[in-house]
Amino acid sequence: MALVLTGVAVITGAILAAVNQVTKEPIAIQKEKALADGIKAVMVCDELVVTKTDVVKQNDAKGKELSYTIYQTQDKQGKDLGAAVESATMGFGGNLKILVGFDPEGKILGYTLLEHAETPGLGAKADKWFQADGKGNIIGKNPKEELVVNKDGGQVDAITASTITSRAFLLAVNNAYKAYKNTPIDGATGASKQEK
User: For a tag on the chain, would you pick the N or C end, based on fewer CB atoms within 10 A?
Assistant: First the structure.
């Protein structure tokens, strides 16, 4: 009986490894396409080129090191469009990962949720809430002065019944802005330095 169970476990493990190997590349291609589409969406431009990808590490208010990926973009004529920044924080239901587009002055062009575990019908509304008409709209705002929900004395309406998600979302946007504005510049070339 032990030999049969061992044989079944070995065969099952081999099948799972083979399936993983077969699906690894298509999954990576799909993620890459989703990211490229997301960058176009948040930069509000279909004809753009990602000229540089930087990884910036910063400590949050609690001293925890966070990592941000910054995609510097230009249009086809070489004009600087700004950057799309990946940022993540903890929401109500778990990790909340966003991609935010900033113009060269730091104004928010757009955003998209890359990953979240928020409550459907409540916190999951963040994908549209902060770009809809009304006091919750952050498009066109510059987070130089941090974006804060009005319940905490700020200027942004929180998602109804989802203040924790709203706070987490705005924290991710504010952190993305700081990472974008604090990207180290190489004095010789004017380009951002990329961490390895």
Answer: C
Q: Write out 76-110 in H/E/C secondary structure.
A: CCCCEEEEEEEEEEECCCCEEEEEEEECCCCCEEE
* Strand, coil or helix: 73: strand
Look-up: residue for tokens 């004529």? 77
Region of 185 (left: φ > 0; alpha: ψ -120 to 50; beta: rest) is beta
Q: What is the C-alpha to C-alpha distance for residues 21 and 132, in angstroms, rounded to an integer?
A: 42
Q: Which residue matches tokens 């990211």? A: 35
CA distances from 165 to 59, 90, 113, 127 (A): 21, 9, 12, 11
Neighbours of 140 (CB within 10 A): 11
Strand partners, 98: 87, 113
pTM of the model: 0.77
77's tokens: 């004529």
Beta strands in the chain (DSSP E): 48-59, 65-75, 80-90, 95-102, 108-115
Written as six digits, the tokens of 60 are 């949050």
Kindly tell me the burial class for residue 97, based on how many C-beta atoms sit within 10 Å of its own C-beta (0-12, 13-18, 19 or more). Answer: middle
Pairwise CA distance, residues 153 & 162, whole Å? 16
Whether the CA torsion 141, 145, 147, 150 is positive or negative: it is negative
Q: What are 78-119's pLDDT values in tens digits? A: 999 999 999 988 776 677 888 999 999 999 999 988 876 565
